[in-house]
Amino acid sequence: MSPEQLLGELEGEGQVVVGDLEAGVGTVLRLQPGMADAVVVVVQPTAKSIDIGARAMRIAATREVRVLVVANRVRDEDDLALIRDGVGDDHEIFVVPDDPAILEADRDGLAPIDADAGAPGIAAIAALADRLAGSGAAA
């Protein structure tokens, strides 16, 4: 079943559906207006990731959806500046720090929130989830 068909099956009031779709711009290219309320573009501080993220953002903006940016695995202000320079400041940007607790949980086969609910990376992801669900303030 395609992502479009799956979302059609889940239509209804008061539902929040988060889909982790393939990397790149393919899914965003197939996105039709009204199919999603928001697109979250995850960008890491590398040239390739920033280029693909910026392309996905431009395409998503033409699809009448809110675009949020996750600056992922950010080690320092230089990483964040690199991402901001590449994708611009036109969208909300959520910073997820490069967090050793997340890497350790992944190595142990655990969900990061179960391994260390207080880790900075988990707090950043929780803030994004709150924002997407409509209960959080803009970052």
Q: How does this structure look, described?
A:
- With 139 residues, the protein is α/β, with parallel strands linked by helices.
- The chain folds into two domains: 23-97; 99-139, no CATH class.
- It is 46% helix and 15% strand.
- It has seven helices and three strands.
- It has a three-stranded parallel beta sheet, with helices on both faces.
- Strand 2, helix 4 and strand 3 (92-97) form a beta-alpha-beta unit.
- The longest helix has 15 residues, at 47-61.
- The protein is globular.
- The chain starts with a helix and ends in a 6-residue tail after the last helix.
- The model has no long low-confidence stretch (mean pLDDT 84).
The share of residues in helices is 40-55%
Give the biggest sheet: 3 strands, parallel
**CA gyration radius, whole angstroms:** 16 Å
Class inferred from helices and paired strands? alpha/beta
Oligomer: single chain
Largest sheet, order of strands side by side? 1-2-3
What gross morphology would you assign? globular
DSSP strand (E) fraction?
Answer: 15-25%
Distance between the termini: 35 Å
Write down the domain tally: 2
How many strands?
3
Give the count of helical stretches.
Answer: 7
Would you list the SSEs in sequence order as H and E? HHEHEHEHHH
Low-confidence sequence ranges: none
Query: Please, what is the average pLDDT?
Result: 84
